[in-house]
Amino acid sequence: MLAQVEHDHASSWGALCAAFGKPAVETAKKHGLIEAVLPGFYVARDRSADFRVRAAALTAWATPSGAITGLAAAHLWHLIDAPPPRITLQVPPGWHREPPPWARLLRTDSVAQRYRLGAVRVVSPADAVVQVWCEARHDVGASAVIAAVVEGRATVAEVRAALARRKRVARRGELTQLLDLVGTTVTSYLEYVAWKRVFPPHLFPELQWQETVSANGRKRIMDACNPDAKIDLEFDGGSTHGGVEGFERDRARDRDLRSLGYEPLHFTYRDLTERPEWCRRMYRELRAKRLREQRAA
Question: Which CA distances in Å does 86 have to 17, 51, 65, 103, 133?
């Protein structure tokens, strides 16, 4: 019996009794070998707080109507790292059960695509990130949308279709704008911050985004650049630029771009979010200097 309930799924009382007999199941419950994760669904002792166990239990509890969505689904699709403390379960409008404190219900008539990830029924990555956009902080929602597209979990068209299926979505216009940019103009949340808040096109029309060049036999993609002044703007997030390896990659990349006459200008997450005007000043001063040098040459 323990082998059956120690996996990442919950077994109903009826299924356990059918497999092992009611007396054995009652004895296991009496001695604390199994515990309820949801009414009528049991798991091995000390497993009821596990994220995947809870997600699987909700799937069994809501069969066939429900599916995991939002932050929980994004975590299952490996779009966000940490599992959320509360799991969102998408169900039809007429579905009425009281969820446990660690879950919430999204009642909607939107028909999301559904998949099985082990014992968990989950909505598609596209449907998941639209719900993340609704339930999470702005930066988490935008990061999830960008990650889904850049990592190939969903296409822009699929996210647009998922958005169209939802009647109410907070900041729908902003999400639509992000979908116009992701994959072509921005490929990370930090680039989105730079494009939207620090170097917006109406103030910096000379900047080109995601420009590809060939340097020393290698393809290099600049986050943003000014081709006239030969400036390469790089927005350095910790996940890709941190540590010794990230530092060495950045230095090699800078050498390649300098071989083409570009001067790299690096900005960190803190620079962009806490001192945007300083970032703009650094760029403007370097641009003016580079253009003066070109005129004098």
Answer: 30, 9, 19, 5, 16
